[in-house]
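Worked example 3 (structure in, sequence out).
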């Protein structure tokens, strides 16, 4: 098995309120590995810490604790110049294609910006235009469209521009933060297929963040489930969907619609009790215990560690792993 391209060990990010009166832990003791050429999906409900984790990896915000290793180099201790050289191999595709592109810049300038910043080409030169034309063509856009502005493109086309920009420096890792959530369903499928093709052609590694389980099943090799800032389950995609172990994962899968109308009519939903706890006042022990149908006294005493809960590589942070969703239906 190849060495991980990206490794996180005990990564934590906390925010302190005014005058130090309150503390919110957005990412709490996250450890995971991403191997070269794979797609690791990161899934969870809104506010669970997914985007914060991606920002910490990219050092757009600084981690409060932990280690982040990329391609054999530790990122958190790097200075600005050293980090700039590493960022050539770490790029990001953002969620909103309407907000992530500068409306005052032509598309050619937007896609060329990473090349100019890292000294690969000089702005306005024929070499830059030629490289931008290649990148636009690789994502399914006309090479001549580089003279147009973002407002002249549809949402799906704008996201293709964002992908072309991310590929400009030929990175090893692309972090995709909800890249299709703002698009129509038919356009989502086109973008997912494009990203899979580019991965196969260029040997890319993806960290793919989404709250949409159907999309995750299409693109991810492995899926990490995040709840309240922590990874609560990690497994191969098919195993996670067919044999989940953590009660929170069961509840997520229960909330996702099924395309088969017969199955959809007959299955029973898992309805969680109460409201999610406040990040400013987290519960003791397991963060999910206040809503968990199978929580016991032990769950309030200590945090369950990530332990093997299925086949090798399938881990879950639960003292009482659940095999059958029927155990959770009231």
């Amino acid at each position: 098995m190849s060495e991980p391209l990206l490794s996180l060990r005990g990564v934590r990010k906390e925010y302190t309120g005014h005058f130090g009166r309150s503390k919110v832990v957005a990412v709490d003791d996250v450890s995971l590995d991403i191997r070269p050429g794979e797609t690791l999906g990161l899934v969870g409900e809104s506010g669970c810490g997914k985007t914060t984790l991606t920002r910490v990896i990219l050092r757009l915000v600084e981690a409060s604790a932990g280690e982040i290793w990329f391609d054999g180099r530790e990122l958190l201790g790097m200075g600005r110049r050293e980090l700039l050289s590493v960022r050539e191999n770490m790029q990001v595709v953002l969620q909103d294609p309407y907000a992530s592109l500068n409306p005052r810049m032509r598309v050619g300038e937007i896609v060329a910006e990473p090349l100019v910043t890292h000294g690969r080409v000089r702005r306005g030169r024929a070499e830059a235009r030629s490289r931008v034309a290649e990148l636009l063509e690789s994502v399914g856009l006309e090479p001549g469209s580089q003279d147009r502005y973002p407002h002249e493109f549809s949402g799906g086309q704008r996201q293709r521009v964002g992908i072309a920009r991310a590929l400009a420096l030929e990175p090893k890792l692309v972090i995709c933060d909800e890249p299709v959530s703002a698009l129509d369903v038919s356009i989502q499928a086109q973008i997912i297929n494009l990203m899979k093709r580019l991965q196969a052609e260029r040997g890319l590694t993806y960290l793919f963040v989404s709250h949409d389980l159907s999309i995750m099943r299409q693109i991810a090799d492995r899926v990490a489930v995040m709840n309240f800032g922590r990874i609560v389950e990690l497994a191969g995609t098919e195993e996670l969907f067919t044999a989940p172990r953590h009660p929170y994962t069961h509840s997520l899968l229960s909330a996702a619609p099924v395309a088969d109308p017969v199955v959809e009519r007959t299955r029973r939903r898992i309805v969680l009790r109460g409201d999610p706890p406040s990040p400013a006042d987290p519960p003791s022990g397991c963060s999910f215990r206040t809503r968990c149908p199978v929580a016991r006294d032990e769950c309030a005493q200590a945090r369950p560690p990530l332990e093997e809960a299925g086949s090798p590589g399938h881990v879950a942070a639960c003292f009482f792993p659940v095999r059958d969703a029927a155990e959770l239906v009231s």
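Notes: The chain has a mean pLDDT of 90. Residues 185-202 form the longest helix (18 residues).
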